[in-house]
């Protein structure tokens, strides 16, 4: 039970984010429920108890206040890999996350900043080969220039979760735009 997660929805009942999926550890969701910051939407069968009460573990909660999200995702390693579709931007090969690094197109030692517009996904071999040089100096070409993606673009780039990977109480909120089954 310690690894149970609670899906967190905005007040409009859409996930706060899809990639990575907006979820909290169930203990955080219980705290938010007790503090009346969220509404309970669905529950697991597991029951938790305190000295004064018992309740089911929340599987889906919705914020009481709508959280306005800007059109751009957080600058994270996962989101860089997602934007670049887990593909080294120098050799064009696709890799697992564990085999990737990120590279500063203009090296930090030369004033390059850690921003969407200066960081790309790279495999270790290419990153080491490029070293402390610009792609031009290293004789390497970028597949595409780095840029700041929108939330929508990252959602389309990331691999969707299979229905079997999520709890049945989450399905209606994750696949609300899918074709209905007969």
Brief synopsis:
With about 180 residues, the chain is α+β, with helices and mostly antiparallel strands.
Polypeptide structure, described:
This protein is an alpha+beta fold and 182 residues long. It contains 6 helices and 6 strands, in the order E-E-H-E-E-H-E-E-H-H-H-H. The protein has helices spanning 26-34, 77-83, 124-130, 135-138, 151-157, 171-174; strands at residues 5-9, 23-25, 38-49, 54-63, 100-104, 119-123. Strands 2-1-4-3 form a 4-stranded mixed beta sheet, covered by helices on one side. It has a two-stranded antiparallel sheet with strand order 5-6. A hairpin with a 4-residue loop joins strand 3 (38-49) and strand 4. The protein is elongated. Mean pLDDT is 89; it is low at 178-182.
Write the SSE topology.
Layout: E1 5-9, E2 23-25, H1 26-34, E3 38-49, E4 54-63, H2 77-83, E5 100-104, E6 119-123, H3 124-130, H4 135-138, H5 151-157, H6 171-174
Parallel strand pairs: 1-4
Antiparallel strand pairs: 1-2, 3-4, 5-6
Give the total of beta strands: 6
Q: Strand order within the widest sheet?
A: 2-1-4-3
Strand-residue proportion:
15-25%
Q: Can you count the helices?
A: 6
Largest sheet, in brief, is:
4 strands, mixed
- Give average pLDDT, whole number: 89
Low-confidence stretches: 178-182
Describe the global form: elongated
Oligomeric status: single chain
**Span from first to last CA?**
33 Å
Task: Bin the helical content.
Answer: 10-25%
How large is the radius of gyration?
A: 21 Å
Sheet/helix structural class: alpha+beta
């Amino acid at each position: 039970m310690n690894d149970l997660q609670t899906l967190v929805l905005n007040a409009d009942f859409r996930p706060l984010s899809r990639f990575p999926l907006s979820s909290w550890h169930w203990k955080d969701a219980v705290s938010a429920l007790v503090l009346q910051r969220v509404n309970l939407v669905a529950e697991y069968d597991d029951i938790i108890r305190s000295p004064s009460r018992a309740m089911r573990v929340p599987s889906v909660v919705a914020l009481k206040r709508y959280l306005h999200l800007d059109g751009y995702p957080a600058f994270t390693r996962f989101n860089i890999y997602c934007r670049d579709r887990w593909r080294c931007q120098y050799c064009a090969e696709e890799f697992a996350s564990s085999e990737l690094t990120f590279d500063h197109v203009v090296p930090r030692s030369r004033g390059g900043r850690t921003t969407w517009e200066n960081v790309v996904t790279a495999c270790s071999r290419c990153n080491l080969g490029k070293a402390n040089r610009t792609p031009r100096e290293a004789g390497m070409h970028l597949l595409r220039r780095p840029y700041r993606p929108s939330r929508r673009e990252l959602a389309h780039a990331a691999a969707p979760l299979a229905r079997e990977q999520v709890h049945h109480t989450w399905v209606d909120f994750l696949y609300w735009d899918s074709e209905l089954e007969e």
